[in-house]
Amino acid sequence: MLHGRETELVRLRTALARPEGRFLVLAGLAGVGKSALALALHEHAAARRGGSAWWISARTPETFTDGLVHVAQTLGASPADTDELRAGTARAQDLWWELLSRARRGWLLVIDDADELRVLGALDGTGWLRPSRRGLVLVTSRVGSAHLWGRTAEVIRLGPLAEGPAARMLLDLAGGGNEAAARRLAHRLGGLPLALRVAGSAVAWEFSRWDSLAAYESALGSGDATGLLHVDRGAGGPADPRQVPATTFELSLASLTEGGLPHATPLLRLLSCYAPNLPIPVGLLACETVNALLGGPTDEAGRQRHLHTALRGLAQLSLITEGRPERNGAWPRTASLHPLVSEASRSRTVGAPHQVAVEAVVAALDPLRSDDSRTWPLAAVVSPHVRQLLDTSPAYLDEEHLAALLDVAARLVAAAAWSGAADASGQLASHALARVTPLPEDHPSRLNLRAELAWATGRNGDWDAARAMLAALLRTWESQADPPPLNVLDVRHKLAWAVGQTGDWESARAGLTAVGEARRRLLGTDHPDTLHTRCCLAWATWRTGSPAEAEAEYRRVIADRRAVLGDDHVEVLDAYQSLAEGYVLDDRHEEAEAVLRMVVARRVRLLGPEHPETLDNCPRYWLGRALQGQGRHVEAADILRRLLQEQIRWFGVDHPATAATRARLTGRLGTDAIDAR
């Protein structure tokens, strides 16, 4: 019984009833259920009165030829005809179609396992496959590229089953069970019908090791899925390798090697180090270390050609899927792997691919700053892959690569915090610190990541915890014989800001002044980090009773940031917003409104209208306050109400930013978290 393929089966039956002059190709990953769907159509065609239905295996040239001869004999071929077909003479293909024309209209010819296209001859309508309105030719193949099949073909791509149909398939095969467990197992197996069939049958076998789908799912979670996903036939003889998911994927790789693409195998091993089912930027792979792994040429054009031929080969056999995301233009092309393809390949991956996977991410992120909004789309794409590397690669990494992986995680944590995803950044930091236990507690990479975790904690609203974390971290750094000065200054800056956020702006001002002077000496006046400390110091100056001095410094910082970073950099907008917040606190509401409307407009243009407003980047919150200060309560309520709805959607009802907006909107101010900025 088919599950989840009703739409495709209707399409096939329609094509069989009314052939349109093109042959159909069911294409997709090995194990996705192409042959099962073709068999359902074959059974339907054979059951019709007067209908003819044939099945030919194209797994090898020999099975294909045998199938042609068998069908030809049913159509009245003479011994001379069958000899020509076996010999593959120049006339053989025309002879085959002459014989097929004798069949009654409405016939079905299934050509199964047509993964080696050379077996089929020319695909331009002159070979073994030709368009016909007398019957339907249906081909099953792992090759899904419409370009290869030509204009006379219609390619129907089959993907994994949705969770509901996949769960029903498991329950049917296992003879019943818990639906929730079936859904969990279906999700774990990525909806791949072959894996579902193996799993469901394994539970149903006599004397099975698993008495339920839940037990099987638990076994997968605690062991090697590729080892469990085999057909335990008992006395039934050895299993067909093509019925074992891991093995059938390897057969696809072997065919690519035989076809002149041996570097497709190390490329798939590399890709399997990243997160499955998620886009992997192809640009991530365009680096020297990946090229060395693939054994590519040294010239740039040759390197690109070498990489893309391997990608194309993997895609044509449906081992990877091409994607073109629209995420703010980040990486125009991506590749993704089905979870079982990823897991099966990763189980055969040791050493170099894991190291190269780390090096590729390092190379991609190296030129980018975490406070640059142009970095954020890339960071969002790469973060789950770094998380996967943290989960599965540490055993294959030396200390150098472990440290590099942790440094990359720290950069992604910082980028997420800057972009407004402070909660997600904190989760990534905690996850990373728990996964790299081989590194000592006082390793610089660990300490840097702890600093970013503390910063994310504060930006998420808990500055008391952040202050304690940073103070402990500073003591650790200062206990070392020769701590790196820039790392220490970063912690001192963060700690001074946390001190201010917890209410002691006098101490914060003193700390930021010292950090600013040190950064100026080490980095220069116009370095972005120096400018960042100056901007924070201006706020501390305002909060300690010197608004005129602070305003003047803000205007200098804005001018310097514009000169160094550009007019639309997020740090330029941050300085403008901080200036406007000072105006609000000093009841200069009209001036604040003018600046904040400019910030809101530029922020929408830079980040998009859907980008969330957070605790420390909330211009509409402050605009609402500026309007309230002018007595324009209806306008303020409209802005704050819309902001509140978005914050509830993004952060939930209890997030400090959400609570502050709700308090401002309802007039129940109490302690307003955002006022502490």
From TrEMBL:
Transmembrane segments: none
InterPro entries: AAA_16 (IPR041664), NLR-like (IPR053137), P-loop_NTPase (IPR027417), TPR-like_helical_dom_sf (IPR011990)
Domain Orc1-like AAA ATPase stretches: 4-118
UniProt cross-references to Pfam families, sorted A to Z: AAA_16 (PF13191), TPR_10 (PF13374), TPR_12 (PF13424)
Highest taxon, organism lineage: Bacteria
Name of the protein in its database record: Tetratricopeptide repeat protein
Source lineage: Bacteria, Bacillati, Actinomycetota, Actinomycetes, Micromonosporales
